[in-house]
Design brief:
The complex is a heterodimer of chains A (about 250) and B (about 240). Chain A has about 250 residues and is an alpha/beta fold. Chain A has helices at about 45-55, 95-105, 110-120, 135-145, 165-180, 190-195, 215-220, 225-235, and strands spanning about 5-15, 20-30, 35-40, 60-65, 70, 80, 150-155, 185-190, 200-205, 205-210. Helices cover about 80% and strands about 0% of the residues of chain B. Classes of the chains: A alpha/beta (about 250), B mainly alpha (about 240). The interface of A and B includes residues 56 and 100 of A.
Chain lengths: ~250, ~240
């Protein structure tokens, strides 16, 4: 059972309005690895994440997480999602937010306090979430996802607005969790973070451009760094095309 | 539905309000001020002022809980917290009952303070016992919560949610018998009012004006209003979607 991939996406098509956000998209994510989801804004990263956590209405195809259909009731304790905009309650304190999400997944208040320390918010725990800085707010949101110690962590741009030191610590935490068996999916458009992932999923306009290890991507393109490699892959995939539903 | 999670949701809503003392002040002080104004406006004339005070005891919980619920729920939808809740073990019923429980408690507190004020400070001539007055106020407040949840489902901003107050609540209050007995309304208006839930909250409250013991009409009205709360909550649960486009 543990050999099956954590996430299996098969021929997923998502349409929003007249836009095909994802088209015939397939990929697999193995357990216990950090997978980086990279692509320009509007490429479908968030939509793919929403499909994996089961809140995205899909047109066709299937998404299975830990062997079950995405969004199944049994997965809601095992999968945690951090949205791109910090989705926490601005009118209660940092600690009250994390403790609330802890109670929902059955984690103890003490675990909530540990996670608050871990994301560097120990000093802000009594402040209203609406009064902390943008970078801190995003860490409140991250703490709410981490607090249940889920088996699959889906994080939409968790390091945006964080200073380099904190970003480094957060990545150390993601790596430690993966080592302990957690499957981590992190979206980013900062290429220097791509090198810290085990695997990279490069997507553009709803299609998969490449799925490989960072070293594999470099070797396949012959580029000197991931930034150049990604640009090369994008250019090789052809000009931007307007994709419509018809 | 899971009691631990329902309580967590209700607790979080109460914490949000606790951090907002101004709102707490407004929901307790404003009704007292309005009742006092009416008391002196009509020159303490009985039984008019007592009847007005009794009406306010059911009207304020409906108005205030409608507004608080509609705004709080629209904010959950806009801020992404609702979407996030949908990825956790929270059931839709946990959210709905959590809201009902939190605002029901708030309405109980408001009812206690307001009826104490009416019975003891203004010495109003209300025949019915305070406990049953508060019960009618709570049922009214839950109607406000249920309509507020529905209003939030069809609003994309707080501005729109507030506009649903004149659309959803004011017509019901006008036809509820507050402004004169329903028996004296034109037949078609009375027929409409028969189908409006708020009518029954007001009817229950008004039964307490002259009757020291609760009448069968009181309990019947409470029952109908409570059934409407359940029906409206079920309708509201259909508006909470786990998957969105």
């Amino acid at each position: 059972m543990t050999d099956t991939p954590a996430v299996v996406v098969e021929r997923l098509t998502v349409q929003r309005g007249h836009n095909r956000v994802l088209e015939d998209f397939s990929c697999e994510m193995p357990r216990g690895r950090v997978t980086g989801l990279l692509g320009p804004s509007g490429s479908g990263k968030t939509t793919l994440m929403r499909a994996i956590v089961g809140v995205q209405r899909v047109r066709s195809g299937s998404v299975r997480v830990l062997g079950e259909p995405a969004g199944s009731a049994s997965l809601r304790r095992r999968v945690a999602y951090m949205t791109q905009a910090a989705s926490v309650y601005s009118d209660i304190t940092v600690a009250e937010n994390v403790r609330f999400f802890a109670r929902l997944v059955g984690a103890s208040p003490r675990r909530a306090d540990e996670v608050i320390e871990q994301v560097g918010l120990g000093g802000a725990r009594g402040q209203l979430a609406g009064s902390v800085s943008g970078g801190q707010l995003s860490r409140v949101s991250l703490a709410c996802a981490l607090v249940g110690d889920p088996e699959v962590l889906v994080l939409d741009e968790p390091t945006v607005g964080q200073d380099p030191l904190l970003r480094d610590e957060l990545w150390d935490d993601f790596r430690a969790r993966a080592k302990a068996g957690t499957t981590v999916l992190v979206s980013s458009h900062v290429m220097d973070e791509a090198g810290r992932c085990d695997d990279l999923l490069l997507i553009r306009e709803g299609s998969l451009l490449a799925h490989d290890t960072p070293a594999g991507v470099l070797a396949a393109t012959g580029a000197g760094d991931l930034d150049a490699a990604f640009l090369q892959l994008v250019r090789a995939s052809g000009p931007r095309q307007a994709r419509s539903a018809s | 539905m899971n009691p631990r999670i329902t309580l967590a949701v209700a607790g979080r809503i109460l914490r949000q309000i606790r951090h907002d003392p101004r709102t707490l002040g407004i929901i307790t002080v404003v009704p007292m001020v309005v009742i006092t104004l009416l008391y002196y406006l009509f020159d303490k004339r009985e039984p008019l002022v007592s009847k007005l005070a009794l009406d306010m005891l059911v009207i304020f919980p409906i108005i205030i809980m409608f507004l608080l619920t509609a705004i709080a729920m629209v904010r959950e939808r806009i801020s992404g917290t609702l979407e996030r809740l949908m990825t956790t073990p929270v059931a839709k019923s946990d959210i709905l009952f959590g809201y009902g429980l939190a605002f029901g408690l708030l309405a109980t507190m408001q009812g206690l303070i307001l009826s104490a004020f009416c019975y003891w400070v203004l010495d109003t001539q209300i025949a019915g016992p305070p406990g049953l007055v508060i019960l009618a106020a709570i049922v009214g407040s839950l109607l406000g919560v249920a309509f507020g949840l529905l209003a939030s489902a069809v609003s994309t901003s707080e501005f729109q949610a507030v506009q649903f107050f004149p659309a959803m609540i004011i017509p019901q209050e006008i036809l509820s018998g507050l402004f004169g007995p329903r028996e004296q309304m034109a037949g078609w208006l009375k027929t409409i009012s028969d189908y409006l839930p708020i009518t029954y909250a007001v009817q229950a409250m008004e039964e307490l004006f002259t009757n020291e013991e609760p009448t069968s009409l009181y309990w019947k009205s409470i029952g109908i209003a409570a059934a409407c709360v359940v029906g409206l909550l079920l309708l509201a649960s259909a508006t909470l979607k786990r998957r969105t486009p």
